[in-house]
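Narrative of accomplishments. A recurring question from our advisory board has been how the design workflow behaves on a single, concrete structure rather than in aggregate. To address it, we present the structure tokens for one chain from the evaluation set, followed by the sequence designed for it. No filtering or post-editing was applied between the two.
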């Protein structure tokens, strides 16, 4: 499997960043905002679905971090002359970008403000956790990147149409049950609609710059996908999985009582009563369904992976109860086809090219700008 940042099994919310074509020219007025698209793996295979989910999330988080980075520049627009060197730690200058200085207080406000905006936007908790972890680890460098990107947008005198910002604000409002709740959240975070509009404007300018300077210049050749697949087939070995019906009887009312009930349930099954009927009468938990190799306790996995279609297991005791399984079907380990793997591979290659080109672009911007980090 392709290994990326984390192996979380999640229903994902993907930030779809629409890139202009490679021939697009900078526009003085941008109508496009940031489009959010809900996507979930189409495959019924659990291993492929997990890998697709993680690969897509990695690509989405790369883009999301870049385009949310601009959120707090409003609070950092003071000139160099307005910051006075002081003995207090928070007023110590930690970086200089051209004629602007950044203090520890600025950085603290930047990170806290980003957290506030994400909460106002009702961001998915998983995405918020990922973004804030990056800000805590690399806050000063990301803040400098933000300034560089926004400065490049200002050089082109890029403007954002009010309608595009209105549309995004309406989208954010739509995540709340009412306008009153939305306004209360703004007040709680110490923000106004004007603050949000300015932040969104900066984000859209940054998105436009990165789309034109980075994303639109990336191309993944189909041959690259094929070559990667042929060279890394071991990454596309799907685990074996079994589909099971199960009855679970809890020890909550005592182990002896649970064992007696399990024995009775097993007796009824061997006498021909349907598994569904016995399940309704005895089971304390839903049926386990489809399970991948490696997900079960060893003594259970050894037993169920050796069962035959339609076979019913004996009662199997675990720490908190007793299981009875009915074996439905099994899929053996096999290499995923190129057809099924190509979207994951494309995303991985694109993500790698995107990161590299973005880093190169930021390096060029740094060369044009005086940057000093004093931490």
């Amino acid at each position: 499997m392709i290994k990326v940042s984390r192996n979380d099994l999640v229903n994902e919310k993907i930030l779809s960043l629409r890139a202009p074509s490679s021939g697009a020219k900078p526009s003085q007025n941008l109508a496009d905002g940031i489009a959010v698209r809900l996507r979930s793996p189409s495959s019924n295979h659990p291993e492929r679905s997990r890998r697709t989910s993680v690969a897509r999330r990695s690509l989405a988080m790369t883009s999301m971090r870049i385009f949310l980075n601009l959120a707090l520049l409003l609070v950092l627009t003071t000139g160099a002359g307005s910051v006075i060197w002081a003995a207090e730690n928070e007023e110590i200058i930690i970086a200089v970008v051209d004629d602007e200085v950044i203090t520890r207080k600025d950085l603290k406000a930047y990170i806290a403000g980003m957290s506030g905006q994400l909460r106002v936007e009702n961001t998915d908790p998983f995405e918020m956790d990922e973004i804030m972890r990056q800000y805590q680890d690399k806050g000063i460098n990301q803040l400098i990147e933000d300034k560089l990107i926004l400065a490049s947008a200002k050089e082109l005198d890029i403007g954002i149409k009010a309608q595009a910002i209105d549309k995004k604000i309406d989208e954010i409002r739509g995540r709340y049950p009412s306008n009153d709740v939305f306004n209360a959240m703004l007040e709680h975070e110490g923000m106004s609609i004007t603050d949000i509009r300015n932040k969104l404007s900066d984000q859209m300018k940054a998105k436009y710059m990165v789309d034109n300077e980075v994303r639109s210049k990336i191309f993944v050749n189909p041959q690259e996908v094929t070559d990667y697949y042929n060279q890394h087939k071991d990454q596309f070995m799907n685990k074996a999985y079994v589909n099971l019906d199960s009855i679970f009887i809890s020890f909550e009312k005592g182990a002896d009582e649970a064992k007696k009930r399990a024995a009775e349930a097993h007796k009824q099954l061997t006498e021909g009563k349907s598994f569904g009927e016995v399940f309704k009468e005895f089971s304390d938990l839903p049926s386990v369904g489809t399970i991948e190799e490696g997900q079960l306790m060893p003594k259970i996995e050894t037993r169920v992976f050796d069962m035959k279609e339609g076979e019913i297991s004996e009662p199997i005791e675990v720490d908190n109860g007793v299981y009875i399984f009915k074996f439905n079907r099994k899929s053996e380990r096999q290499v995923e086809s190129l057809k099924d793997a190509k979207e994951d591979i494309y995303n991985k290659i694109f993500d790698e090219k995107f990161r590299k080109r973005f880093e190169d672009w930021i390096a060029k911007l740094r060369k044009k700008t005086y940057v000093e980090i004093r931490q």
